[in-house]
Design brief:
The protein is an alpha/beta fold. About 40% of the residues lie in helices and about 15% in strands. It has an eight-stranded parallel barrel with strand order 1-2-3-4-5-6-7-8, surrounded by six helices. Helix 7 links the parallel strand 4 and strand 5.
Length: about 280
């Protein structure tokens, strides 16, 4: 199958550089006329799977499934399986981060052999990048990917992510040190499987030009990021940026045709990010 970096690069070339979110927020369920329970969750997710089946990457937001307890996790497991059966790469937006055996257990859940295991998972490095090692190791063993939070666009993140680090990170922002640590894992050569998360609305993003891996760019659309303004974000190369869009597309539901049309419009809007690829 090849490593996740290779599979993602191929999917982005063939299906467009776009990550569509499945975010079953209670407000969206209500707007779609669905019940705020596991049945409504399942109907919402099934519609998204049907509408997004020919796109490169789909990102279920784990928190909105977890809110319904074991029944929500059952829906998430079925959603992950259905997306992968359709040939879609699944990025579980779980933002896990811990230490030692607890991090190893999260790694088993999201990058091992459990029903929750996805093609890739988001992770928080703010207990130290090294704390993610169990997850990075498990992902590598199973040809999966990890997207590490580096510089997010929420205002609260700036005090940590844009602070000047100490020790090995001295002279760099903390966010830049995270990008550099991910680049060291990826090395050179084939596309790396460790990506970073960089907000679309940042005016001073970290330099990702040496990452040799993908950059997930949330915040496009409803959060203010403009699809036409992403090129070269943080020095990114063609084919490196993976814009993530959720509400801008999901609010077109529940009609499947309208949902597909909104997703296709966004795919066309960001397609230029692949220009220059062979």
């Amino acid at each position: 199958m090849g490593g996740f970096g290779d599979r993602l690069s191929s999917a982005m070339v063939q299906r467009g550089p776009l990550c569509l979110g499945i975010d079953p927020h209670p407000g969206l369920l209500s707007a779609w006329g669905l019940s705020l329970d596991a049945d409504g969750l399942a109907r919402f997710s099934d519609a998204c799977v049907a509408a997004f089946a020919d796109f490169a990457v789909v990102k279920p937001q784990v928190a909105f499934f977890e809110a319904y307890g074991s029944a929500g996790y059952a829906v998430l497991e079925r959603t992950i399986a259905a997306l992968r059966e359709a040939g879609v790469l699944v990025l579980a937006d779980a933002k896990r981060g811990d230490i030692g055996s607890t991090m190893a257990a999260y790694a088993d859940a999201w990058a091992g052999d459990s029903p929750l295991a996805s093609d890739a998972v988001t992770a928080s490095p703010y207990l130290g990048f090294g704390s993610l090692q169990p997850l990075l190791d498990k992902a590598q063993q199973n040809d999966r990917g990890v997207f590490v939070l580096a510089a997010t666009s929420n205002p609260e993140g700036a005090s940590v992510q844009r602070a000047i680090g100490a020790g090995e990170a001295g002279g760099r922002t903390v966010g830049q040190s995270i990008v550099d640590a991910a680049a060291a894992v990826n090395g050179t050569g084939r596309p790396g499987s460790v990506g970073v998360v960089v907000g679309a609305t940042l005016s001073d993003p970290p330099d990702v030009s040496a990452l040799n891996g993908p950059v997930l760019v949330p915040g496009v659309g409803a959060q203010g990021g403009r699809p036409e303004a992403l090129a070269g974000l943080g020095g990114a190369l063609p084919g490196q940026l993976l814009p993530a869009v959720s509400r801008e597309v999901l609010r077109a539901g529940p009609d499947l045709a309208s949902l597909r049309e909104a997703a296709e419009r966004m795919r066309e809007a960001v397609g230029y990010l692949n220009q220059g690829l062979v």
